[in-house]
Amino acid sequence: MKRKPEIRGTTPADYERIADLTAACYVALAPFQKYTSAELTGLLTECCSIENTTKEYDRYESYVAVIGSRIVGVIGIDEDRIEQLFIDPEFQKRGIGGILLEKAENIMRGRGCKKIRVWSATAPDYYVKKGYVIDERKTCDYGPLQGRPVAVMSKYF
Q: Taking the domains of the chain in order of start, what are their residue ranges?
């Protein structure tokens, strides 16, 4: 990693950048996940709007990774669940996701969680490398990726 990010809690002032970062991630994933144009449009419209970002990030605890003044990653947690983990495509493969994931896990473990859960449609292998086990494979039952496979995973402490 070139420069270690600062990790801090999100604020409403961050939501526009988080929406843009999330959109950049979905666009970068599109060729690998073979998203249809309808799926990508749905993701960008439903998941990356400032309204949805505000709604999502207001409902759970979240943290951003910042390098300089740029937000390069975000993670959301809700009780014992990882809700969101996005890293700016320009900053991937630098350990930023691992730093954010470790921060979230430490917070949850500090609150007494013995098990952390996450659902992932795009990165189950990443979570497995981080010590998560796949509990179940199912299909997404709502939203732009309805019908797509998703892995339901857990990590125990």
A: 6-113
